[in-house]
Structure formats: structure tokens, C-alpha cells
Amino acid sequence: MLDVDKVAKKIYSKNPEILNELRKIFGDEVFNSDGDLIYKSLAEKVFSSKTELEKLNRLMFPLIRSEVKNILNENRYKNYIIIEAAILFDCKLDIMCDYIILVDTSDRRREIFLKNKNFLDDDVELRIEGQHIKINRKKVNFIINNNNSKESLLKKVEKILKNI
User: Fold this and answer.
1) Which helix (H) or strand (E) is 79 found in, with range?
2) How many domains does the chain have?
3) Which helix (H) or strand (E) holds 70?
């Protein structure tokens, strides 16, 4: 599974030029005294303002696309690669996909998922309201309604993969 959030964090961590750009755009308050990026501070800033989110996206989307493309090329021998990306359409990663599976769920399940990723209540609400996720339903090949367990979701995905 290719988790695009992890790809973005990898870009932040290995690229001092990006950190410098983030400092120029968002200021010192998104960094600690050691010069490390404080993801929570950056998230608060960008998810509370559509303008700030657009600034981050302009910087990061080309880098994310390039890194995802590299990862896909490195793994081209695999039968399939699942890309987990809330920003699939915004970042234009959809053009790299043969099939798109939309996992649709209730806001409550989304909250639980984010809490399981160790986000605090305030962060969860901020992310859900502030992401402005766009979905091009015309490009979606399969929709999974996931209001059950992760195991249930995986079974549904496996069933789709067998049909593909």
C-alpha cells in the first residue's frame, strides 16, 4: 500500500530545501527550536485556511506526484499497487491509476480512522472540515461503503481486485 501522507512526510524529512520553503511561506511557528517541522502546527495553519492550504499544495503536489511516479516505477513488476490518497484528484494522481476505488464512509467512521492514526479530537475536526477534498465521481470505477471494520474493508477490496 502506498500511503501518500507518508510520502509527503518523507519529502519533508529528506529535503532541506522544502523545509526552507515551508519556513518562508508559513513562518518559524511551524518549526521547533531544533529546526524540525511541527506537523501539528503546519496542519492547524493549512487546514484552518483554504488560502494557506493552497500554498502548501502548490509547493508539495508536484513533489508528491514525482515521488509517487518513482515509487510506481520501482514497483512496476507487482500485480497491483494500492494508492491511499485523500488528495488523489487534487494532486492529479488519478492519471497514474488504472482503476479508482472510492472508499466512502460516514463522518463518524472518518473520525475514528483519524483518531486511530493518533490525531487528537481538535485535529480530527480541523482535518475533516479543512481538507476540501475533491472527488471526480466520473473517474471512480468502484465505490465501497465502509461503515464496518478494517477487515470488512479489506475483504471488499480483495473482491474488487479479483474482478479486475
Assistant:
1) none
2) 1
3) helix 50-74
Find out whether 32 and 96 touch, Cβ atoms under 8 Å: no
Strand partners, 102: 143
**Of 111, 103, 149, 154, residue with least CA distance to 129:** 111
E strand or H helix at 2, and its extent?
strand 2-3
CB 111: neighbour CB atoms within 10 A? 17
Q: Are 32 and 19 in contact (CB under 8 A)?
A: no
Instruction: Compute CA distances 53 → 16, 132, 147, whole Å.
Output: 20, 9, 28
Cell of 89: 484528484
The model's pTM: 0.84
Q: For 5-162, where are the E strands, in sequence order?
A: 83-84, 101-104, 142-145
- 142 contacts 160 by C-beta, under 8 angstroms: yes
Work out the end-to-end distance of the chain between its first and last CA atoms, rounded to an integer number of angstroms. Answer: 17
| Structural domain for 108, as ranges | 2-163
Q: What is the pLDDT of residues 91-118, one digit of tens each?
A: 999 999 999 999 888 777 777 777 776 6
Q: How large is the C-alpha radius of gyration of the chain?
A: 17
